[in-house]
Specification:
single chain; alpha/beta; Rossmann fold; 4 helices
């Protein structure tokens, strides 16, 4: 599944999304793995070297949450929340989180796909925004035939059916 858009942790519902993933990790009984992509542009520097394909490097433990070094890793809300919820990409986790804070333009050195190519490979898009719940990102997901869940907090969600 995927969430994307501006890095507005509370307003865009990233906190709600991560809390739901934490609950899924604790309470899910099925053994089906869940991969959650956070395609949320954040202040970053280089790609984490561990993620660059090097078959000579041995496994170095849990895969990192963020794919790039962040400017303020120690205080990053996504990383802090994942840590608090136990979403640490450990081998025993059913839910794994990948936070990609970079533009996906097809030449990012990691996925090497455009945003739309990555989006079209997802099974579900989730946008629990407290405002603008049917903005561009849910519309783009629906346009690429990705089932899309959003809120009814504002905008189109509040329109009455006639």
């Amino acid at each position: 599944m995927v969430i994307s858009g501006r890095y507005e942790f509370h307003n865009k519902g990233i906190d709600v999304f991560l809390n739901a993933l934490g609950r899924l990790e604790r309470e899910a009984t099925a053994n089906e793995p869940v991969l959650a992509l956070l395609l949320v542009l954040g202040g970053h520097t280089d790609l984490i070297p561990l993620l660059q394909n090097d078959p000579m490097k041995p496994d170095q433990g849990n895969a990192p949450i963020a794919t790039h070094r962040l400017h303020y890793e120690a205080s990053d809300p996504i990383l802090q929340t994942c840590n608090r919820l136990g979403l640490n990409n450990a081998a025993q986790n059913r839910v794994n989180v990948i936070f990609i804070p970079a533009y996906l333009n097809g030449h990012d050195g990691l996925l090497d796909m455009t945003y739309y190519e990555a989006l079209s490979g997802c099974d579900l898009a989730v946008f629990p925004s407290y405002y603008e719940p049917w903005g561009y990102t849910p519309l783009e997901s629906a346009a690429y035939a990705v089932p899309t869940v959003t809120t009814d907090q504002a905008g189109i969600g509040l329109c009455e059916k006639h």
